[in-house]
Amino acid sequence: MVKLSKTSKLDGIKSWSLEAVETCPGSADGHGGLVDACKGCYARTGMYVMKQVKAPRAFNKDDWKRDNFVSDFVDALKKEKFFRWFDSGDCYSLSLAEKIFEIMQKTPHVKHWFPTRMLKFDKFKPIIEKMNSLPNVAVRFSSDSITGEFNETHGSTIFPAEQGVPSGAFKCSAYEHDGKCSGCRACYDKSVKVIAYPQHGRKMKKVFMMKLG
Ligand code: SF4
Question: Is 165 close to ligand 1, i.e. is its CB under 6 Å away?
């Protein structure tokens, strides 16, 4: 049986996750540190450091390698309409990416939100582009910026809440609704090109203040 998580933020929509940073090669800044967006990562604080949250993520890191993982996953999504990949962690392995693509193909009734930084790596581009070509999949290549920058390849960015929404992006309003999606499904909708998430959390604020000097 696959271990899915259900979070209140996502209105009870299920997700499958891995441990943050250790499965996120795209979080590295190339100088031994983390890119700005990952320095303030929510998945390294609060409830994410609790044993009961870390345990399924550690389990999942081995679980995807077994033979019947894809068929079990497809079964687990039978009644779902929306699904979020990687509430924490990233698709660090090409073999995992191939399996995820197969799951996406076999669940056309599910709208998949696939956030990632793996598009930084050329060898991942073909398989992630294949995912994004499916009508039920919204791949969101996350910008490293916390000041709202993004380019035509990105599907999301982070911006300072006190500043205006970056031009051309859709503002996430979860933090105006107790941190919950409250019926919004923009992240799963591939017609919405870029989502702008307001900075949130003390850790992110600190990263931003340090950046400002
Ligand atoms: S943009 Fe909408 S779906 Fe995405 S996280 Fe924010 S509230 Fe949820």
Answer: no
Pairing outcome for strands 156-159 and 14-16: unpaired
Cβ-Cβ contacts under 8 Å for 188 (sequence gap 6 or more): 82, 84, 111, 112, 113, 138
Cα 66 to middle of ligand 1, angstroms: 32
* Domain spans of the chain, in order of start: 7-212
Pairing of strands 82-85, 137-141: unpaired
137-185 tens-digit pLDDT: 999 999 999 999 999 999 999 999 888 899 999 999 998 998 899 999 9
What's the pTM?
Answer: 0.93
